[in-house]
Amino acid sequence: MDRREAIRTALGEEAPDLVLKHARLVDVLTGTVYPADVAIRDGVIAGVGDYSGPAEVDLGGRYLAPGLINAHCHVESSMALPRAYCPEELRWGVTTLITDPHEIANVCGGEGLRFLLDESEGLPINYYVQLPSCVPATRFEHAGAVLSARELAPFLKEERVLGLGELMDYPGVAACDPAVLEKLDLFAGRIVDGHAPGLTGKGLQAYAAAGVRTDHESTTWEEARDKLRAGIAVLVREGSASKNLTAILTGALREGVSTREMAFCSDDKHLADIRREGTIRHNLRLAVALGMDPVEAVAMGSLNAARIFRLPNLGAIAPGYRADLVVFEDLRDFAVSAVYKDGRPVDADALAADSGRQPGVGPVFRSVRPAPLTAAALALPDRAVQPVIEILPGQILTRRGEVRREDIPSELAAGTLRKIAVVERHHATGHVGVGLLRGYGLRHGAVGTTVAHDSHNLILVGDNDRDLLTAAGELTRVQGGYTLVRDGRVLGTLSLPAAGLMSTLPAGTLTGELEKLLTLAREAGVADGIDPFVTLSFLALPVLPELRLTDLGLFDVTAFRLVD
Amino acid sequence: MDRREAIRTALGEEAPDLVLKHARLVDVLTGTVYPADVAIRDGVIAGVGDYSGPAEVDLGGRYLAPGLINAHCHVESSMALPRAYCPEELRWGVTTLITDPHEIANVCGGEGLRFLLDESEGLPINYYVQLPSCVPATRFEHAGAVLSARELAPFLKEERVLGLGELMDYPGVAACDPAVLEKLDLFAGRIVDGHAPGLTGKGLQAYAAAGVRTDHESTTWEEARDKLRAGIAVLVREGSASKNLTAILTGALREGVSTREMAFCSDDKHLADIRREGTIRHNLRLAVALGMDPVEAVAMGSLNAARIFRLPNLGAIAPGYRADLVVFEDLRDFAVSAVYKDGRPVDADALAADSGRQPGVGPVFRSVRPAPLTAAALALPDRAVQPVIEILPGQILTRRGEVRREDIPSELAAGTLRKIAVVERHHATGHVGVGLLRGYGLRHGAVGTTVAHDSHNLILVGDNDRDLLTAAGELTRVQGGYTLVRDGRVLGTLSLPAAGLMSTLPAGTLTGELEKLLTLAREAGVADGIDPFVTLSFLALPVLPELRLTDLGLFDVTAFRLVD
After folding, report:
1. Residue-level pLDDT at B139
2. Which residues of B touch A6 (CB under 8 A)?
3. Residue A140's pLDDT band (cuts 50, 70, 90)
4. pLDDT, tens digit, for every residue of B97-133?
5. Is the ipTM of this complex over 0.90?
6. Which is deepest, A273, A519, A560, B559, by most CB within 10 Å?
7. Which residue in chain A is spatially nearest to B173 when comparing CA positions?
8. Would you call B254 helix, strand, or coil by DSSP?
9. Closest Cβ–Cβ partner in A7, A30, A208 for B320
């Protein structure tokens, strides 16, 4: 809509494309609700008040709110491609995503960024990108790529690239690591996302002084408050595993602080969970259940995020703002009755049904390329006492245990111990880390995954080398995914051929296939309280205490070094 | 401060330039107050918490707030140049000005903009500029310049130019006047200030749809609320003449709305008033007296304005923000005990004492250039019944009265009627408008001014042509100002040689000189309830009802045309 058309439509001199009649307008600008019609033209709000036009939808007093904004999410964590992921967000009123393609970047580098930018192009959602700041996540593993300032720079000209994604390398900031500072300099004047669980005191001040302007890792109100005071916007996270909303907002409500510098995000949320309850919409109802004013909650889920990320025409309902809108039945459960993107109704079911694609031919679809794996490579290092990664049910943290060499065969036979291997899969270097795992269960056979934060090497767990090799072969054949094998036979595989991280299936099919595989894994004896694949996917992440395994071997996170 | 120094100073590894110890920090980010030290280096806040350094100032528990932001002001209206004006703002804690050099632009066009940019360069204040959008204000008078999009464009590259100043031409917006749309297109993506008293309904929606994002003309809460809902930030004005704060905030507090989209401004405030009570600081104490939370009031006077004008490093106290700070004794009266700009203490008295300058030689100092004025040019148009401008005490509006030709001599003799003339003074065109004025007083003699909104022609009022000519000659001789003459003799003159609008004196001398001249004018019989010069300065503004006089003659504002 050009300016002339906007003015004339607002004046009622020209017809809008659509009028949403009889709304209860959730006005996040004033924090109030008032009755109004909303006139839309060319995807933009032309006027709010008393309007009519050739195309009208009577909202019958339902609540009309700005489209919601998920202020930080990793689409790859849903295992769906953007075209399959976005309908599930849109279904629940999210019309803007601030994504951090950190996962695919660790596998495919700049080609991965390009791929997700292309895949998300033209979808009926505002798909913004924060460029990954920490690829690889650490130097104790081999990822598929390295992204320095030089590799990131060309992406700054992309319209949908806003800033720098979660800066996990706090030690690098504190040490003034030149590679980190170079990235911060490159993104000067843009929004830099933080990622600093538990950081307080002078360290937090240094992190803020370095230029970090958001963080989504607060788990307590006190931590969130300290970050807010440091000028770091708090993105309150409610994902599938990390649920921080109640702790943060309970404190904020108790102390009556301003929420203007807080927004909502999901970070990592499983597709089935999103399909069931949404992301930000779920946060809204949790916040209101805690006693937050509903319009304030909606502001956190819309305008606040828009302001934090400097998106001037998003997050409110007023002339000149994009007509990204969600209709709620109520402001308690936030049941969604309609969603509009750029003024057009969104049919999430139709979008979802049409969201599959064939695997392509580019490097993203040729990402599982380990060196040929042999039984010899799966031999444990020769130690009298072997360190053991002990999984804790319901937790992402592990404990460091141990086992004597002579007890390993009997523990393997008893099923209390399983072998775990991490196989470098990006550049066929032949690096294989081998260790032992307790607490996983699995009676007999092997499980494998190419989703393995953050380098996404191949993780294999099992009770015998033959099945480990079978699993590796299967995942190489399908170019990534989850698999369950027994006695050399594949019981089930969920193929994730896009970077070994994402399926090409539509969301419904994908969640169905995953459910089937999870049932098979449960039947195979994976312990209760443990997600058969997601738990594995964190076992190679050398930043979570206490013991992890990378393709370079066991890593003692507490000492922050490889085990000798 | 480079990033490395910022980080190391925040960590406590390198020394800050200054530590403000034991502050009660007014944290507008969370809306709370908490105790802290603030470490400053290179004019930027490095860390907040527990800091020490070689240079410390103990605040002893005083309140430390972000430097205040005056979100809309015309420096010319103070009659002081920026170097004399800014110390008076700094004295009361204002460290950022959003100025609109609309007045000088009407006299000197782009050369006036350039002059004020140069004059404000290097002052210890953030001096931002919104480029004047409406020069000339109307087509019913001759101003000194015309600023179209073409003349404004070169100024967009100036670092301190933010956007487009008050768009007074609502009719031009509604009519999609190409010249107006061209300016809006030029400033797309920047902040456009509005100026739309009383605008509501579809007209307001059109104004917002056109791209206007602030307005400072609301006089009632309902008007402010409608503008907020339209996505137009409300700059709550408290000037010398226009005082809107109580009406707007009483309503906002009663309805419990969010104030996030509201900030404070002074628009036009006399220098003596600023010296006595400040601008934004005065607004803070008024707001708190009405019952507003003090931290919320401070946020309106700092962070809100910074966010509205997209100034990311202003308006809060946190690492990376500029160390523009004000120390308050309390949060009720907001007595100022110290001000810091870029981390350095401001000595407003010393700045003020040093703020005079000699008139320069450029076009700004050669702006009063009327054609030679003769008694013949001061003859009244020949009408049987003459329209009369009637001044209403204490008001800026006028009424249209009339007088029969034969009654004029006796009324002039009785002192109830005075002759008024507006003399074009920019381009020596010889245009002179002549009319009659009632309610001004002045026993005998003439008063003259070159401050005459918005075109700033020469206004003369008196009871005889000789004194009118004497006043015109005096103001031409001194190149602008206020003057009072009697029987061909100058009783007193305040010289305003910068564009005929501003003095070159320091603020203290200027207010003293003005006070002396006002006393002379009172003694000369100017009526009570009328400012001898300010009232005159609005009599040529052809947008204020009902009757005005321009250099083209009497203008009927209600009919919006020149009187035949």
Report:
1. 81
2. 206, 209-210
3. confident
4. 999 999 999 999 999 999 999 999 999 999 999 999 9
5. yes
6. A273
7. A7
8. helix
9. A208
Q: Tell me which residue of A414, A333, A337, A377 sits closest to A553, measured CA to CA.
A: A377
CB A183 within 8 A of CB A173: no
Q: Is A31 in Cβ contact with B209 (below 8 Å)?
A: no
| Burial class of residue B171, CB neighbours in 10 A (0-12, 13-18, 19+) | exposed
Closest-CA residue of chain B to A296: B258
The tens digit of pLDDT for each residue in B496-542 reads: 999 999 999 999 999 999 999 999 999 999 998 889 999 999 999 98
Mind listing the pLDDT tens digit for each residue in B422-450? 999 999 999 999 999 999 999 999 999 99
Q: Please give the sequence-ordered ranges of beta strands (E in DSSP) within B342-407, or none if there are none.
A: 344-345, 385-391, 398-404
In eight-state DSSP terms, residue A526 is B
Please list the alpha-helical segments (H only) found in A354-496. Answer: 408-414, 465-477
Residues 6+ apart with CB under 8 A from A235: A71, A72, A214, A215, A216, A262, A263, A264, A265, A305
Alpha-helical segments (H) within B142-239: 149-152, 170-174, 178-186, 201-209, 221-229
Measured CA to CA, the distance from residue B257 to residue A40 in angstroms comes to 26
pLDDT, residue A345, reads 98
B72: nearest Cα among B169, B162, B203: B162
- From CA A266, how far away is CA A191, in angstroms rounded? 19
Cα B521 from chain centre: 24
Q: Which residues of A touch B231 (CB under 8 A)?
A: 29, 316, 318-321
Using the predicted structure, report yes or no on whether residue A394 has a pLDDT greater than 90. no
Query: Nearest Cβ partner of B202 from A49, A206, A318?
Result: A49
Question: Taking CB atoms and an 8 Å cutoff, what residues of chain A touch B180?
Answer: none
Phi-psi region of A278 (alpha: psi -120 to 50; beta: other; left: phi over 0): left
Residue B463: φ, ψ to 5°: -105, -5
Q: What is the pTM of this model?
A: 0.96
Question: Does A202 contact chain B (CB < 8 Å)?
Answer: yes
CA distance B259 to A389: 53
Task: Give the Cα-Cα-Cα angle B375, B379, B383 (nearest 5 degrees).
Answer: 175
Contact criterion met (CB < 8 Å) for B184 and A3? yes
A181: which chain B residues are within 8 Å (Cβ-Cβ)? 3-4
Torsion angles phi and psi, residue A109, rounded to 5: 60, -140
- Phi/psi of residue B76, each to 5°? -55, -30
Percent of chain A with pLDDT over 70: 100
Chain B contact for A30 (CB, 8 A cutoff): yes
- The residue in chain B having the minimum alpha-carbon distance to the alpha carbon of residue A34 is B229
- For chain B, positions 154-193, list CB contacts with chain A under 8 A: 173-174, 176, 181, 184-185
Give me the residue from B27, B49, B174 closest to A7, CB to CB. B174
Contact list in A for residue B11 (CB cut-off 8 A) is 174, 202-203, 205-206
| Residue closest to A343 by CA, chosen among A95, A13, A83, A3 | A95
Number of H helices, E strands in chain A: 18, 27
DSSP per residue over B81-148, as a string?
A: -HHHHHHHHHHTTEEEEEE--HHHHHHHHHHHHHHHHHHHTT-SSEEEEEEPS-SSS-SSS--S----
* Residues 415 through 434 of chain B touching chain A, CB cutoff 8 Å: none
Q: Is A201 in contact with B49 (Cβ distance < 8 A)?
A: yes
Cα dist from A406 to A380, A411, B28, B151, whole Å: 13, 10, 64, 88
Q: What would the pLDDT profile of B468-486 be if each residue is shown by its tens digit?
A: 999 999 999 999 999 999 9
CA distance A52 to chain B (A): 12
Q: Which residues of chain A have a CB within 8 Å of the CB of B48?
A: 205, 229-230
Q: Determine whether the interchain pair A319/B185 forms a contact, defined as Cβ–Cβ distance below 8 Å.
A: no
Three-state SS at B55: coil
Distance in Å from the first CA to the final CA of chain B: 65
